[in-house]
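Ligand-bound model needed. adenosine-5'-triphosphate.
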Amino acid sequence: MAPGMVPGVPPEPAVIVRGAVREFARPKPYPFAKRPEPFTAVAGVDLEVPHAGSVAIVGESGSGKSTLLRMVVGLLEPTRGDITLGPGAPPQMIFQDAGASLTPWMPIGKQIEERLMALDVPQSERGARVAATLEAVGLPAEAQTAVPRALSGGQRQRAAIARAIAVPPALLACDEPVSALDVSLAAQVLNLLCHLRETLNIALLFVTHDLAAARAVADEVVVMQRGEIVERAPTEQLFTAPAHPYTRELIAAVPEVREVAA
Amino acid sequence: MTTTTEQPPTMTEGAVPVEGPGAAAAREVPTPVARMWRGRPALSPGALKGDTVWHALIPVAILSLVILIAPVLAPYGATEVNPVGPLASPSPDAWFGTDEIGRDVFSRILIGIRTSWFAALGVILLGTIIGGLIGAIAGAFGGKVDMVLMRVTDLFLSLPAPVLAIAVIAAMGPSLRNTLIALSIVWWPWYARIVRGEVRALAARPHAEAAKLAGVSRTRLVLKHLLPGAAAPVIVTMSLDVGNLILALAGLSFIGLGAPPPAPELGAMSARGLQYLFGHPWVPIAPAAAVALLALAANLLGDAINRRLDQRTTR
Ligand SMILES: Nc1ncnc2c1ncn2[C@@H]1O[C@H](COP(=O)(O)OP(=O)(O)OP(=O)(O)O)[C@@H](O)[C@H]1O
Ligand SMILES: [Mg+2]
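Prediction:
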């Protein structure tokens, strides 16, 4: 049983988002011009990821998915609204471009160790923890001394996951964790995420363009459009009875899923 | 990238079943799921030892060593008189002849090259340290700190470099040390700009944000995740600058703003020998040729380093 859980009491959600709004200032068209209205990337989102739950966010490009994730993990302050994190280690994130989220000149092992250092894991334990984490994500032990450039794209993806779970967070945000991978690799990474969720009770909040992936991993799917959530439903319901026209469009765009939905 | 012969797991299979220790124990150390990755790929062996930018500096170190020990080949000291007499023509006894006092030009050039080379390296190192520090602080903090530091840098950049150098030397008196200080004052702003630009650019890249999210401290972020990325462009600029500095130093010493007379400085030697240009041309031309050769060597080296680091940083 995870720490902080009391029998009989439902565990607190990993994160509760209430009315989150994020605006970005637009540049002035010319000096001394009046400040233009800010651009609203996320326009009032309510969202809840249950303890060890799994929520997928789908939506077109530019709909504010990454911005929402960055607010959830604390990389961006919301302009308005509240983000309440549940108990446990602070959230981590797998970035949209996982390879670029690794420092190019630093060996993978060192980057994982930094995460342990940040949470005051004693020096004597770090080596073993790094090795165990690499093993957990299926990277060979040599990867510890390799710089990111020496790894393949999929290996870098796993290295980024390794850093995020070296100290298991209560919530793992994944920004399109599989969109850059081929089908079998994507399946492996999705399996890994599911496995982490079940063994370590890590809640998942992940963005995807791949509805099949959402279906395989998520309990609930939310659909975003222009910064707002336009539909939210348990995964199966979303596929069998999509309510919003944009959702129908999305489902129609995936041939194999349409057959199931019809 | 995997070479597994097994059927890859499909997405609809969902998660692999949980085995081994319970979830609570697993929270301490992640359970191995190596089972899922049968046929883990080996990493390419050469790729593991990523060569660092510092390796590019090996040729500079070798050349410096050669220049450092070259004066042991000098048959005479810097102010020692060659017995062949003053203004002697080049001969096996005095390879580049002798000057108006009878000092051996070849010996003085070997020693002068050493002064010029290390003086140039010294100015560049000092400029890089001062500029790097200011640039790193400006780039890392941003906002007001950045603005103030960069306006100061701009101020120094806007000063006409030769005039400032001459003014500093005129105020403090001509000596090699003062020349180096003067040149460092006009040289650091370029490095501040480069480092600041690189640090800012790197700070906007995902790896910096990811390190922040991983909980890396601010100092560590700058030192380990940002500054190393500025090393390559700074080293390229440094190596291409050595030639410029050798010329600048020779120029200042030519107009009398280097070390005072008996010191074997290439620029000053050339200037003082100028009156013997007709009749005893080796006296002014040999040190001038040495400056040209040294600057050429420095530029060729800089080019080589530039090309090497360019390749390396293509990611
Ligand atoms: N730092 C920023 N400054 C200004 N505008 C931004 C910034 N970050 C995001 N935006 C804008 O906010 C909007 C939403 O961006 P976001 O990255 O969240 O989209 P997304 O849903 O993740 O898209 P994609 O699927 O392409 O990744 C975009 O129009 C983007 O231009
Ligand atoms: Mg995005």
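Residues A 24, 39, 41, 59, 61-67, 96 surround adenosine-5'-triphosphate (ligand 1) (CB under 6 Å).
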